[in-house]
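Researcher: Structure prediction, please.
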Amino acid sequence: MPIEANKVVTMNFTLTDETGNILDSTDAGGPFSYISGTGMVLPKLEESCKRYDHRNKETVKT
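Model: Predicted structure follows.
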């Protein structure tokens, strides 16, 4: 089910650099939430989340 604009999106994530070093993660602090369609996250992440199937793990490269 696609994510519509102005909906709260909550996710866990791990952000790594090109060599696999962890730059940021929700592991210790709990999930990250944002309002879709408001420019709160990187555009490529927003586009990917619109198509995301919440039952699967997703990898997004920016």
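Model: The chain has a mean pLDDT of 85.
Researcher: Thanks, that helps.
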